[in-house]
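does this look right to u?? 2-acetamido-2-deoxy-beta-D-glucopyranose version
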Amino acid sequence: MKFIFCLSVLVGAFFFTHSSVQKEDHAPYLAYLKSHFNPCVGVLIKKNWVLAPAHCYLTNLKVLLGNFRIRVKDGTEQTISPINIIRYWNFTDSYPQDDLMLIKLAKSANFSHKVQPLALATSNVRPGTVCLLSGLDWSHDNNGRHPDLRQTLEAPVMSDKECQTTEQGRSHRNALCVKFVKVFSRIFGEYVAVATVICKNKLQGIEVGHFMGGDVGIYTNVYKYITWIENTTKDK
Ligand SMILES: *[C@@H]1O[C@H](CO)[C@@H](O)[C@H](O)[C@H]1NC(C)=O
Ligand SMILES: *[C@@H]1O[C@H](CO)[C@@H](O)[C@H](O)[C@H]1NC(C)=O
Ligand SMILES: *[C@@H]1O[C@H](CO)[C@@H](O)[C@H](O)[C@H]1NC(C)=O
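got this back:
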């Protein structure tokens, strides 16, 4: 959990120092996993399924779609309980490997301009492709436990070879590494989850609780798990 926090703090610093105006990004596919523990982010991939990191597993979590600001309601908020949570069969807490789970929602989400599913990767992404890192953030005047902004930043995907030269990339079988455009220069006490990597409007990576340090971010390569995701979420 320490790693997640570091990643979060550093990326929070990035957003804070490099965006003087915090504007809400669209990102209607982001799901906030609300619990009494660390905030986590998932992605709505079908009307009744959310893909998330397995380290976010908690029995009492709620999935918030649409607006998740607590103080301002705009009628787009949808809070849905999971009916089933399926962690990837080979996931263990001791490794950053296979850090994926599928959350089946007790009822289907209603799509709107604020709630839309995101397509899954259909191939591996070419190194150098500039992708969007999309996640949640705290606005300047939010001192609460829960984030209230969607944020995105751009970053290029690294080659597997380059990824393998980094310590955590080497120890992670199915990693997707991205290079943050600017090195984080300071730590700010505000944190965020840069939860997802989206390339050409497809979900390519999802956060692992493992910070690489410096200017590299490591994610689970979603494309490597497509068979499992499709099989698990297909309507029976
Ligand atoms: C399952 O996970 C462990 C630990 O990460 C790894 O050593 C092993 O190779 C994995 N097995 C398969 C079949 O992927
Ligand atoms: C979707 O809309 C229907 C009809 O308005 C409503 O009954 C249902 O509760 C909504 N679902 C969610 C997840 O909010
Ligand atoms: C697909 O999922 C079912 C359970 O939903 C499981 O029994 C089966 O082994 C899975 N097949 C593959 C290829 O993963």
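Residues 90, 95, 97 surround 2-acetamido-2-deoxy-beta-D-glucopyranose (ligand 1) (CB under 6 Å). idk if thats expected tbh
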